[in-house]
Amino acid sequence: MNKKTHRSLSRPLKMVQSILDFNLEKEINKKIKINKQISILDIGCGVGRSLWELSSIFSNGDPDLQLQGIFYSEKPNKQSAFFSNQIKYVEILKDPLLIAKEFKIKYKNKVIPKLFNTNACKRLPIKSDSVDIIYSTNAFHFFDHKIKAIEEMSRILKVGGMAIINIDRTDDGFWSDKLHFPRLHIYSKNKIIDAKKILQNKSGDDFTIFIKKINSHATGKDAYVLKITKHQKGTLRFPELSFDKNKSFSFDNIRFSDKNYKDIPEYKKFIATGITIKKKFNREDFGGYLSSYKLK
Ligand SMILES: C[S@@+](CC[C@H](N)C(=O)[O-])C[C@H]1O[C@@H](n2cnc3c(N)ncnc32)[C@H](O)[C@@H]1O
Q1: CATH at 162
Q2: Number of separate domains in the chain
Q3: Domain that holds residue 166
Q4: Quick check: CB of 44 below 6 Å from ligand 1?
Q5: Would the CB of 138 count as within 6 Å of ligand 1?
Q6: What is the distance in angstroms between the CA of the first residue and the CA of the last residue of the chain?
Q7: Global confidence as pTM
Q8: Ligand 1 mean position to 32 CA, how many Å?
Q9: Residues 63-119: tens digit of each pLDDT
Q10: Does a structural domain hold residue 175?
């Protein structure tokens, strides 16, 4: 089939770095000077284009470079709106060189990125304390159990390693300015708690948590980037938060262009959260997944 990959699955490295407001290449260069083995993981990697670009820049045999990516896709289903993506994922798992060829990246003698189809919100098939750099763009807002994903990232990071994650797409002017993480809903007795504070409170001797607001063209204005640096072996834990399955749901079914959108169960659930939005709905849909947690 080999249809061209949709651009939302294959942002180039340059754009990935701009979304993260972070120079990954420079960071990798720093790590290369001190480590013999470097392991890099893109979470929600799409087809892994930026990993191929990193391979092209850094794989010269020394140090030992490992490039991994995680995506999450169901078996191809013709009824699904994501059918062409699902097919693409099957193709790239069969032929890992396909993306290098499609984007004209030289692959001879280069490290081949290893991609997995797995949910980033479950235990990852990656050893604890083994990854130097985790990065993620335009993916976190799709995750169902976002806190579990953060815990997993912290587990697999090496001491001295860092994760840099573009947290949300803000849909220009849609969400209230007060919401730092619109799709990570934490509440206590019907009151919305600032997710940014909950995360930042975890900063300490073992991990540093840094959250920064950036103005990124690629994601809409005012996207947030979360940076986790690991200083000691271990895993970040959030025992004070319990995942509320009943209040968590995908936004995919809410179509504001439908006359009866107010009757859709997910819309009713959304309104019940008390999350405020700035403008009238003016988009076909706004995608992603609302992860709700009760603060104990
Ligand atoms: C819009 S694409 C972004 C791709 C790439 N990061 C980029 O910026 O071009 C979103 C990616 O997140 C992945 N994804 C969504 N939910 C996921 C989950 N729960 N676990 C792992 N990956 C997930 C999708 O499979 C897809 O690869």
Answers
A1: 3.40.50.150
A2: 1
A3: 7-238
A4: yes
A5: yes
A6: 50
A7: 0.94
A8: 27
A9: 799 999 999 999 999 998 889 999 999 999 999 999 999 999 999 889 999 999 999
A10: yes
